[in-house]
Specification:
By secondary structure, the protein is mostly helical. The protein contains five helices and no strands. The radius of gyration is 18 Å and the shape is globular.
Length: 118
């Protein structure tokens, strides 16, 4: 049994990389699909953003309720603040997609970072 466990442990980093990249691959696939107009693209990106915001709220609630570990500021930053900012960026990008498609593409691609004004 120990031999099979050690054989599987070498795959741990693979699953971490693939799992954490899954969201980026999904957004890339959505942005690359040949949509007939910007409306369904905006709805798909918005659904990802809103879904992420809801998931982030669940994570924050669970982190505050658990008693086994007291999260430090780095935990809050990396597991709540940064993901929330990225999901909010997806949501904002979805809203901006129809009136400002080029700017919205940069917002979605940067994970919600600031864009330069014209």
């Amino acid at each position: 049994m120990i031999e099979s466990t050690s054989a599987l442990s070498s795959w741990e980093s693979f699953y971490v990389i693939v799992g954490s990249s899954g969201g980026a691959l999904l957004v890339s696939a959505i942005m690359s699909a040949p949509w007939p107009s910007l409306v369904p693209l905006s709805l798909a990106i918005g659904a990802c953003g809103l879904g992420g915001l809801v998931y982030g709220a669940i994570v924050m609630r669970r982190a505050r309720r658990q008693d086994d570990y007291e999260p430090v500021w780095e935990d809050w930053l990396w597991h709540t603040v940064f993901p929330f900012a990225c999901y909010a960026g997806l949501t904002v990008g979805a809203v901006l997609l129809r009136p400002h498609p080029q700017r919205a593409s940069f917002v979605v691609g940067s994970g919600g970072g600031p864009t330069k004004k014209d």
